[in-house]
Structure formats: structure tokens, C-alpha cells
Amino acid sequence: MTPPKKRPRKSAQDKAIEAARHAEARARALEAIAWLGAQGSGPVDVEALAEKLGAEIVFEDLEGAKARVIQIGDRARIIISTRIVGIGAIRFSIAHEIAHLLLKHYLRDGDLGRAFKRQRTCSPLESDGSEIERDASVFATELLIPAPLVTPMCRVALKSLEPVRAIASAFQTSMYASARRYVELTPERCAVVIAKHGRVQWVQKSPTFGAWIPERRAVDPATAAFDYFDGRLDEAPRVLPASTWCARESLGTMPTEMYEHATAIPETGTVFSLLWMPTT
């Protein structure tokens, strides 16, 4: 069996360009919050923001997509799939489509409507995507879980998914989005791993998590994520060898054990595991 390969590394220039785009997306999100007058007043009202932008939100049975935005002149329609469940996932999808409007991510809709009608179709709950889709997700994350408000909640030591649940409750966001935000802003050595069809699909690591978690490799039977695909997920933290998830050669002097707490994402048929190293 051929071992999984790492994705091609981005050049320093590509990383700088991406960082600049993401910084702009975050800045635009914070501007939108200020424009809405919602600083520090609880979860951002994405429906009110859409209304201020002249965008109607409707729910339809979309085929092959989770959400769509169409703009005609100064009016827009945000279409959310009725297959999306959970208020957090719905709010993220709306925020993601608002991002396409504010960041002007347009696709021309055929020759007839080229001058006045523009639309995008996307799957905002998926972890992969084009640069534009990733930029929209960065905007949506900052809009729904603003760094100035959530950073103090990310300074909590990990013992379970409780800090993530606290973020999800405070901002009315999904556990998945909340976990990614926690990992992005925490000083803890931790990572979020998304698994689908029994394989690692995507990994996000905190700045202090140095080990390599190979993508596309089969999930180890000792993990909680494996239990999900086996139909018996036990949503309780567990201790397991760090090499269960991490490439052994990348661990170096890091602890030989790690913690895993997993939960399912029904909307995408995946499971995400929050992994963290014990503090010394």
C-alpha cells in the first residue's frame, strides 16, 4: 500500500498573499459588525446584516450544494439548503454567503445575465475549497466568532470539549466552527482532525502543535473517530499513544501520549476529533 503523501507546500510568497487576503476578510467582517452596531452585544444577527445588504434569505432543496447567493442589481438572494440542520451550521452558511457579497466574489451567470445577474454556488460546511471559498469562510468565522471577544475563551486549558461547547453556546455556532476557532487562537498544543469514510480528510493545528498528522491515511482503530465509522462513538475524552494520530518521526521530544475527544458532524457525514498534548 502506498503511504499517503503530504499536500504540496505553499511557497513563502503564496503564504504571504493568502495571509493578506485573510487579514482583509477579517477586517471586513469586523467592519460589518460595527456597521450593524453589534459589538459586544451577543451573537451577531446575520439575518439583520443580510437585510441591511438588501439580501433575502430563503430555504430550498438545493441539488449538489449547501448554499447559493444570487445578486441582481442592488438586491440579492441567499439560498440555504433545507438539508442543513442545526442553527450553528445555518448561521455559518448565511455568513459565508454574505462574505461573497461583501468581498465581491462573483461568477457571471451566462451571457444573458452577464450585465446584471451574478451568483455563486458553494458548500460552506466543507473543509476544502478554492481560495475564494476559504476567504469567505475566514470572513464568516470572524463575523460569527470575533477574535476580540472569543480570545479570552481560548485561554482555557483543555480537559475535554467543554471550552469548545462554551464558544458554541456563546456565539450560536456549530461545534465544528467553534473547535476550529479555539485551535486557531489558543496557546495549547492541540489540533482538530476531520475524518470521512474512515480516513483523515483535513487537519488544523494550533501554532504550538508541531507534530505532523498525515492526511488521507486510514483512521487508527484505537481512536474515537474510528468508533464513529464503526457505529459506536463514545463521546468521552480518551488517552492514547500520540503516534495513533501523529507520524512517529515528527514527534521528537513531544509527549508520547495525547488526548482525543470526538463528536460527529451529521450535516457532512464526518467526525471531528479535538486532540491535545498533556501539559507538563
What would you say this structure looks like, in words?
This protein has 280 residues and is α+β, with helices and mostly antiparallel strands. It is 33% helix and 22% strand. It has two domains: 12-144, Orthogonal Bundle (Arc Repressor Mutant, subunit A); 156-276, Beta-Lactamase (2-Layer Sandwich). The chain has eight helices and ten strands. Strand 9 and strand 10 (270-276) form a beta hairpin. Helix 1 (12-36) crosses helix 4 and helix 3 (87-102) crosses helix 4 (131-144). Mean pLDDT is 87; it is low at 1-5 and 108-117.
Can you give keywords for this protein?
Beta-Lactamase, 22% strand, Arc Repressor Mutant, subunit A, disordered N terminus, 10 strands, 280 residues, five-stranded antiparallel sheet, globular, alpha+beta, five-stranded mixed sheet, 2 domains
Number of strands: 10
- Could you tell me the strand content as a percent range? 15-25%
Radius of gyration: 19 Å
User: How widely separated are the two ends?
Assistant: 37 Å
Stated plainly, the CATH topology of the largest domain is called Arc Repressor Mutant, subunit A
Structural class: alpha+beta
The major β-sheet equals: 5 strands, mixed
Mean pLDDT: 87
CATH architecture heading of the largest domain:
Orthogonal Bundle
Strand order of the largest sheet: 1-3-2-5-4
Q: In a few lines, what is going on in this structure?
A:
With 280 residues, the protein is of the alpha+beta class.
